[in-house]
Design brief:
The protein has about 230 residues and is an all-alpha fold. It has one domain. The protein has 10 helices and no strands. Helix 1 packs parallel to helix 6, helix 2 packs parallel to helix 7 and helix 6 packs across helix 10.
Length: about 230
C-alpha cells in the first residue's frame, strides 16, 4: 500500500541523513581521533628517520604533510559506508524516493567535517613540528581544506565500489591512490610555492576547481557504485 505521508524536501532529506551520520560519528570518537593520532605519529617519525636537520625537514615538509594527509584519508575511507551496508540501511537508502547521490553526499559531508576539516584545522601544528616556514602555514590550511574535499569524495567512490568485499582495503588502495595523485601534486606545489615566495594562488585555484568538479561529478559516481555493489 502506498504511504499517505508526504515526501520530505531534498533539503530536509539531506539534513536528516547528515545528522544521522554525524551522530554516529560522535558516538564513536575513535573514528574521529584515529586519523589525527595517525597523522601525529607519522609526523613525529620523520625527524627520527631523516635526522634533526631543520633545513632539510623544512624543504621536505610540504610533501611529507600532504602524503601523510592522503594516507590518513585512505585509512578511514573504507569505513564510510560499511556500517550502513552491514545493518541494511544502505539498501533502504537505495529504495527511498530520494536521489541516492544526495543521501550519499550527506554522509560524505559529515565524514569530511569529522576528519578532513579537523585535519586541516590542526595542520599548522604539524607544519611547525616539521619546521615549515610561517609563510606556508595559511596555504597549507587552505590547500588541505580544498584537497581533503577531493580526497574524501574519491575515498567515498572507492568505498562504494568495495563495500561488499571482505577485507577490501588493498583493493580500495589500488583504486583510489592513482586518482589522488593530482590532488597531491597541486597541494604540495601550492605549499612549496608559498614557502619559496612564489605564487600559490594559481595552484589553489586549480584545487578549488578540482573540488567543485568533484562535488558535482563524484556523488553521482558514488551512487552508481553503491547500486552496483548492492546488486552484486
Amino acid at each position: 500500500m502506498p504511504s499517505d505521508r508526504p515526501l520530505l524536501s531534498l533539503r530536509v532529506a539531506f539534513a536528516r541523513q547528515f545528522y544521522r551520520h554525524a551522530r554516529a560519528l560522535l558516538a564513536s570518537p575513535s573514528d574521529v581521533a584515529n586519523p589525527l593520532i595517525f597523522f601525529f605519529m607519522v609526523i613525529t617519525l620523520f625527524p627520527l628517520g631523516l635526522g634533526p636537520n631543520p633545513d632539510r625537514l623544512a624543504t621536505m615538509a610540504p610533501g611529507i604533510l600532504w602524503v601523510v594527509a592522503l594516507l590518513a584519508s585512505l585509512m578511514v575511507s573504507a569505513k564510510l559506508f560499511a556500517s550502513d551496508f552491514e545493518d541494511g540501511s544502505l539498501e533502504q537508502l537505495a529504495l527511498a524516493p530520494y536521489p541516492l547521490a544526495l543521501t550519499a553526499l550527506a554522509e560524505v559531508a559529515a565524514h569530511w567535517l569529522a576528519t578532513g576539516f579537523i585535519l586541516a584545522l590542526v595542520s599548522p601544528l604539524f607544519g611547525v613540528m616539521l619546521g615549515l616556514p610561517w609563510d606556508g602555514l595559511p596555504v597549507l590550511v587552505a590547500s588541505l581544506f580544498l584537497g581533503t574535499v577531493c580526497l574524501t569524495l574519491i575515498g567515498a567512490l572507492g568505498s562504494a565500489l568495495t563495500v561488499n568485499v571482505r577485507r577490501g582495503g588493498l583493493l580500495l588502495s589500488l583504486l583510489i591512490i592513482p586518482l589522488n595523485v593530482p590532488v597531491l601534486i597541486f597541494g604540495t606545489t601550492a605549499v612549496r610555492e608559498a614557502v619559496i615566495g612564489g605564487n600559490p594562488e594559481s595552484w589553489l585555484a586549480l584545487m578549488g576547481g578540482l573540488a567543485l568538479g568533484s562535488l558535482v561529478v563524484l556523488p553521482i559516481a558514488v551512487a552508481a557504485a553503491l547500486r552496483v555493489s548492492l546488486d552484486s
